[in-house]
């Protein structure tokens, strides 16, 4: 267990060195676990992030009191975690890493120096309702490029439509929904890499990931370590995704990824559906119910996104989590085409 946690922290360090800044001006990746009664920069960083997301209502002071406990509990409830009010490893991963992974996919990373230059040269100043000027127009043009505004609304006036567009963007990116183009909103809006065909995303299961591949949808799976690909469809699943192979051939190919023998072992995989590529983890042991009795698979198998939980334990499996991290570094290859299925 210690080795697994250490591995996760090394991955977190590498992925978010340019995405997060620590308390008191020192670079930081993710704070250490804390609980009620603790004090120090780890608590302050926790409070800052909770405040940014709208959960912490006080002034961050580095003291883990009742306000912090309440804020952590509200965040845990929103993310489907056990609401114990403690900033555990799992809670901290969910709190700090969702946006970092979605803006740090393979092939689109930007160095710290490049980000600094872009921040100085390309990001407009903050603005709010009623303001006018070129900085508002630049904001509107960025919102138009992402589909939050219509092309004819870049007039340099911070209108009601602009406010609604900013609010929608903030909601989609885990920011406080103030409607004002503040520093955090602008930094994400102007520095976040845009999605391109073949890029790999690691969605959070309880942050919208559970709805990305609907029940009954057909999708393709790639085993990261072997490159083996097979086709599946989503059977159901609440705490994670329950899947079945589509044909006997797909069952045979999937079994090859496990060396010809069904096993519970977790493996990093990529899922390709509707032009998007998602990092995930699977086990290789068909079990329980099934709907397709012609695919020669005796049951279904489980696919876990980042933050998925086991049905009976309702806990996040560390092995699945580690495999999802591993998959997030992989790419589907250039053969994918946006808007098309394989």
Give the helices and strands as they follow along the chain. Answer: HHHHHHHHEEEEHEEEH
SSE-based structural type: alpha+beta
Q: Can you give the helix content as a percent range?
A: 25-40%
Strand content: 5-15%
Distance between the termini: 38 Å
Q: What does the model show?
A:
The protein is of the alpha+beta class. The protein contains ten helices and seven strands. The chain has helices at residues 2-16, 41-52, 66-78, 89-102, 112-122, 134-145, 160-172, 183-191, 248-257, 318-328, and strands at residues 200-201, 218-223, 229-236, 241-245, 263-273, 276-284, 301-304. A six-stranded antiparallel beta barrel has the order 2-3-4-7-6-5. The longest helix has 15 residues, at 2-16.
Q: What labels would you give this structure?
A:
342 residues; alpha+beta; 6-stranded antiparallel barrel; 10 helices; disordered C terminus
What topology emerges from the helices and strands here?
Elements lengths: L1 H15 L24 H12 L13 H13 L10 H14 L9 H11 L11 H12 L14 H13 L10 H9 L8 E2 L16 E6 L5 E8 L4 E5 L2 H10 L5 E11 L2 E9 L16 E4 L13 H11 L14
Helix pairs in contact: 1-4, 1-10
In short:
The chain is of the alpha+beta class and 342 residues long.
